Amino acid sequence: MWTDRAGMAAGYMHQLWGATALGLSRGFLMGRFAALRPLGMLLPPQPRPLVMRSNPDIFATRMETRSDEKKQPVGYSKQAEFVRFMEEKADASSNKASKGGFTKNKTLDSILNVEMVKQKNPEQIKQIWKQYFSGEDTVYAVIPGKTFDLMWERVQHCPSFLFALPRKEGYEFFVGQWSGAELHFTSLINIQTQGEAATSQLILYHYPELQEDKGIVLMTAEMDSRFLNVPEAQCLASQVQLFYATDRQETYSLVETFNHQPDQFKYMSVITELEQSRLGEELRLQQDPPVPTA
């Protein structure tokens, strides 16, 4: 039950949209994103001076990634591949053990021996969490309890947001929708092409079980590697702290506007915040490496 509250310059409608893993809901938001380019995928970056501003120093340990995944060729588009995948998925919808599947009821107990971990101090738990995922192609973090409290309070009032992922020639937009302590992402083009059949492409799992005693919240993720690699997932995950855990009201006001005043929401403001924070710069460097000089 993904609740999308976005409003674009072309107008808006309050509708619900769903993913298979969450339960499908009726109504769809295709007309609400008509202001974006065809299928809403890319927006050319606008020239503007960068206003340098430090990233919010809010996570006790930065999200770390490790991936040997090969980079896609320059100019590679995942739109056609996604459509083919959805057609294939219709013929094999019962096979949830596929590479792109997500774990149902992914509990902390399924990852760690929680009772044993409770005997450790916060620093030891951080090291255990880091070591556990150090060999995995995924995203993870240890979030201070007070930071998660702020995020969680805001999630109750603003459960969805539109995030931007830098691409070689612009930005690809992703809708993030909270469902309990899980944050589900799917691309805007996925929604516009697949409607109610749109599925999650990235899920962030937050575990507050240790928050009361240890003052930390553990986070990890699962992604469909056919459509997102680890650095891209890292960029989206980092944007969650940028917009939901910021002390800067001007930044969080974008989330409030998206949820409560969608007709006034300007997606270019998301890109401006992203550029000012410098999140995702490394993605552009990977997609468009410098030309060697003689």
Structure overview:
This protein has 294 residues and is an alpha+beta fold. It is 33% helix and 18% strand. The chain has helices spanning 79-91, 114-117, 122-133, 145-157, 188-194, 211-214, 230-244, 249-260, 267-277, 281-287, and strands at residues 2-4, 15-17, 61-64, 140-144, 160-167, 170-179, 182-187, 202-207, 216-223. It has a 7-stranded antiparallel sheet, with helices on both faces. A hairpin with a 2-residue loop joins strand 6 and strand 7 (182-187). The longest helix is centred in the C-terminal third of the chain and has 15 residues, at 230-244. The radius of gyration is 19 Å and the shape is globular. It starts with a strand and ends in a 7-residue tail after the last helix. Residues 1-32, 34-70 and 89-99 have low confidence and may be disordered.
Descriptive tags:
294 residues; alpha+beta; 7-stranded antiparallel β-sheet; 10 helices; 33% helix
Brief write-up:
33% of the residues lie in helices and 18% in strands. It is built from ten helices and nine strands.
Strand content: 15-25%
Number of helices: 10
Describe the global form.
globular
Major sheet details: 7 strands, antiparallel
Query: Helices and strands: which structural class?
Result: alpha+beta
The side-by-side strand order for the widest beta sheet comes to 3-4-9-8-7-6-5
First and last CA, distance = 55 Å
Low-confidence residue ranges: 1-32, 34-70, 89-99
**Portion of residues within helices:** 25-40%
Beta strand count? 9
Radius of gyration: 19 Å
Mean pLDDT: 74
One letter per element, helices H and strands E, the order comes to EEEHHHEHEEEHEHEHHHH
